[in-house]
Every structure is written in structure tokens, then in C-alpha cells.
Amino acid sequence: MKQLDPVHSIRNAFHREFWRHWCVALPNWIDLDVAMPLPTIIAVGGGKGGVGKSVISANLAGKMARNSKVLAVDLDIGGANLHTYFGIKTPKLTSSDLLLGSRVDFHDISVPSGIPNLDIVCAGQDFGLDRLNSRAAGLNQIWAGILEAKTKFGYDYVVLDLGAGTASHTIDFFLGAHVGIMSVLPEPTSIENAYSFLRALLWRMIHNVGARMGEESLAHSFAERIFNGEGHGGYSQALLKLKEESPRLVNGVLAGLSGRRLGFVANQIRGQSDIEIAQSMASISKDFFGFNTLSLGYLNYDDSAWKALRNRRLLIQDFPHCLFSRRLDEVLIRLQNAVRMS
Ligand SMILES: Nc1ncnc2c1ncn2[C@@H]1O[C@H](COP(=O)(O)OP(=O)(O)O)[C@@H](O)[C@H]1O
Ligand SMILES: [Mg+2]
Fold first, then answer.
1. Which of 7, 58, 78, 114 is deepest in the core (most CB within 10 A)?
2. In 10 A of CB 210, how many CB atoms?
3. Is any atom of ligand 1 closer than 6 Å to the C-beta of 299?
């Protein structure tokens, strides 16, 4: 009889646990088949515009495509420009068509990015956010397309390039990732918006967990108490104090916090002191908010970024040895370790 490898079975059990915890914080209208193999989902967010979400998404996806099949999805609805980093024109059909109710399939709108093994789903420029609510039917299709990307089309990784701000659909896509990368610049405005983004993540997570458990109003009152008063010494501590009142709900939120990884990348670094920003944001995220967080490293300010963009070429194609590209290799190693540990 074949001997079971103990390390392998522990790892499998750990994966199953992570997977179960990841699910509890997803919006409750998402139907998940527990047996379905999923792609590894990586979201790039950060709350603020212009912090490098798209340049990181595009180049990270480009690097990952050397060994894996990757789908990059532009979710900056209304402000899309991921395609421009690959030098491709907005295709005729984009996710906006889905969101506007056209009868197209999510995977019919993916196009080759020009990099082998890497396809892209573009978003349109013309979609007013006011027409979108977090339960729009098209959003459901986008979610289904991402979750089925492995089983139907063999993608190993799906990279989600998010828009700025804390709209509920943006926060939900970030929560839908196994690893969420937050890009921060060493500037007060970026730090401020990253902090708001973390607040929005925890707020939304409490509501999503509550909705999955049929405890919407209790979840709402817990969130109000944590964010409006009881949480000034640390939101995670305030959450723990509520455990006596509802162990089930609080344990659900704690599971959600541990079932995904957050990583900070400090972008546009110009000096040694800037580098620490990723580490200090990771500490705040861990200690104050309770997220399972890492510092993924930093990316230098590099003129190659705008030179490549002006040429409408991917930075890692035109300047594979530039400082940005080399630092991104280090981020990728840390990211892959984080995925392995999930
Ligand atoms: N490390 C960097 N060095 C130089 N320019 C950068 C760097 N990161 C981003 N940029 C530039 O900043 C601008 C905004 O980047 P982008 O990725 O589009 O931001 P976001 O998607 O967060 O709105 C782009 O012009 C991009 O080339
Ligand atoms: Mg962008």
C-alpha cells in the first residue's frame, strides 16, 4: 500500500483550512463549488490613483507568465488603462459590455497581451460607476469568469488590477484574492488612502461574513461599534472583545482575516528612508487591523517606467535589467513564498 507522505498531508490540510477561511469573507451571493480547483488570485489595490497599481499588475503578470499561464483583468471600471501598459488598443468587447448587460461570455472578451502565456481582459473607459451597484448581474459574470479561469481555460494565476477608491465592488474583488497587494508611495496622501482602504476592507469583511451567516444586522452593529468608538486602541482588539457576545460571528471574521494574505509594496522609492514604508504599513495592518500581512519589498522610482509607457511597451520587455524590474523580481519571490504558505 502506498505510504502517505505526512508533510504532504499536513500541507493539504493547511490548504483546505486556508481555502475555507478565504471563502467566509466573500460576498454571500457568490456561489462556490468547494471541489472546483481555483486559479491563484492576486489583486493589486491601494486606495489611491497613480500609485502604480497598473504598472505593477502588468509587469508582475508579465514575469509570472514565464512559468505559468496568466490572465490579467482590468477592474478599474471607468478608468481603465491596463491595456496601454501592454501597448494594445481597447478591444471591441470589454468588461463594460458585460456590466451593461450584453450577452457575452467573460472569456470571450479576453485577448492576447502580446506576451506568451498571458491574456488580458480589458475594461472600458465609458462605464459610469453610478450605474454599477455591487450586485449588478455583470459583476456576477466577472466573478464567475475569474473563479472558473483554471477549470475552463487552464490559467494558473489571475491578476486583478483594481481602481482607486473604496467602492464596494473594488473592496470585494480585493477580498476575493488569495493575496492582495497594496501599493503605497512614501507620501502622506498615499498612506492616508491606504489606511482608508484597510478600514474599508475590515468593514466590508465583517458585513460579508455576517451576510454569509445570516447575521447581517448583528454584523452591522459590530462594525459600527468597532469603527465608531470602541476600536480606537486597535480594531482587531475591539473585535476580540465582542467575542463573548457572538463567538460565531467573531470567529468567522477572524477566519476571514487569516484566510487571505495582504502584502505591501512601497513604490517610487527615492531613498533609504522611503523603504521602511512597506514594513510599517504591514505592521499597522497586522497589529491594528488583524490582517495576515507581509511586506513584499519596494520598487525604485525609475525613468524606465514612463519611457516604456510612452513607447506603449511593457517595461520588463524594453528594460528587463532596470532597477524597477530587478526589484520586482524580489517582490515576485516574496509573493510566491506567500502563495506557497497559503
Ligand atoms: N516606480 C515607478 N517609477 C517611475 N514611474 C512610476 C513608477 N510606478 C508608477 N509610475 C508611473 O506613475 C503613473 C501611474 O501609475 P499607474 O500604474 O497607472 O497607477 P495606478 O494604476 O495606481 O493609478 C504612470 O505614469 C507610471 O508610469
Ligand atoms: Mg490603474
1. 58
2. 23
3. yes
Residue to probe by mutation, ligand 1, list 54, 55, 56, most atoms within 8 Å of CB: 55
Q: Is the CB of 168 under 6 A from ligand 1?
A: no
Question: Rounded to an integer, what distance in angstroms lies between the CA atom of residue 234 and that of residue 211?
Answer: 24
Surrounding residues of ion ligand 2, Cβ less than 5 A:
53-54, 76
Q: Summarize pLDDT for 119-168 with one digit per residue, the tens.
A: 999 997 765 555 665 556 788 889 999 999 999 999 999 999 999 999 99
Does the pTM surpass 0.85? The reply is: yes
Torsion of CA 84, 139, 208, 223, to 10 degrees: 60
Residue 181 dihedral angles phi and psi, to the nearest 5°: -100, 130
Residue 199: count of CB within 10 angstroms of its CB: 18
d(CA 201, CA 195): 10
Domain architecture of the chain: domains with CATH: 36-340 (3.40.50.300)
Q: Is 270 in the pocket of ligand 1 (CB under 6 A)?
A: no
**Strand 118-121 versus strand 110-112 pairing type:** antiparallel
